[in-house]
C-alpha cells in the first residue's frame, strides 16, 4: 500500500485519485467516500461527469477484487438511478458473494416498482440458491408479492411474513417448494399451518411423489395420528418398497395402536429387501418360528432385531434360540444375544457356563458377556483363576 498522503481540494483531485493505478491511493479514498458521501459529492463534476457517474462507470469495468468491493461499498451510499442499475447488474451476474449481498441490501431499500424487473426472476430461478436467497431477503418487505413469491420468500427468510395457506390456488406453488432445494424449511412452514394443511395434503395423496408421501406419513404419525392410519395402510398396499418402509417406520412409532398393524406388517417378513424386513419387525411383525427365522435370515441387522424382539415378546421360549444365537458369525448378533439372555433370567446360567468349554473364542466371549450381565462374576473369577493354575509351564 502506498503511504502517499491525499490532499483532495477540487473535483479534479478527486477524479485523478479515483483513477490512480495505485490501490494504496484508491482504496483509502473509496472508504473515505463511503464514510462521508455527501462531502465527497460536494466536490462537484469534472470532465462532464459527477462522482456517482464515475463510480458507476468504474463498477462496470473493474473485475471482482478488493478494489471492486470498496468501490461498490462507496457507490451504495448514493440513491441514484445509475447506482440502482449497477446493483441490478451485480445481483444478476456477479460471481462475488459479497457483491451479490451488497446489491441485495441496496435493492431492498428501493421501492417495489424499481426492482420488479429483476428481483422476482432471481427469486424464482433454480440455478443458484444463494442468489435466490439474496433476492428473497431483498423482497421480504414487499407489500404486494404474488402467492408463489410470498411462499418462496418465506422459505428463504426466517423472519419473513407468514406465507399464504395451502389451498387449491396455492397448492402447485407449495408443491414446488416442498420438493425444492429448501424443502426442509418449506415442510416446516406447511406443518405450522396445522391440521387443515395436513388434511389438504392428505386429500391429494394420489397426486404426490413418493418422497412427499413419506414425509406426509411422518408428519401425520407425529402430529395427526388419527388421520394418518388410512394413509399408512394405503402406503403398505400401494408401494413402492421405499414408501412401505416409511409406512412401517411410522407404524413403529404408533405405540398402542401398533398392534393393529401386526398382521399387514407380517407379510413383509418374506420380502427380499432387508430394509423392509427390518422395518416390518420394528412395526410389530412376528415370525411364526423364531429359530428358523434367525437361521434363515441373511442380514445381520435383521437378526439383531429378531434377537431383541425374541427376548421382549417371547421370554419363555427365548432361551434355547438365544443360546444358539451366541454362535452367530456376526459379533453384533452375539452381543445382542448376550444382552437378551440377561433379560431372560438366571435360568440360562448353566447353559452359558457350558459354552465356556467350547472351542470357539467368539462364543466363549459372548458367554462371558452374558454371564456378567447376569451377575455371575464370582464364578467367572474362580474359573479364570483355575484356568491360570492349570496352564502349562
List key phrases describing it.
393 residues, mainly alpha, Leucine-rich Repeat Variant, elongated, disordered C terminus
Written overview of the protein:
The chain is an all-alpha fold and 393 residues long. The protein folds into three domains: 110 residues, Alpha Horseshoe (Leucine-rich Repeat Variant); 87 residues; 89 residues, Alpha Horseshoe (Leucine-rich Repeat Variant). Helices cover 66% and strands 0% of the residues. The protein has 26 helices and no strands. Helix 14 runs antiparallel to helix 15, helix 23 packs parallel to helix 25 and helix 24 packs antiparallel against helix 25. The longest helix has 14 residues. It is elongated and about 105 Å long.
> Approximately how much beta-strand content do the residues carry?
under 5%
Shape: elongated
What is the highest CATH level, the class of the largest domain? Answer: Mainly Alpha
Rounded to the nearest angstrom, the radius of gyration is 35 Å
**Number of contiguous helices:** 26
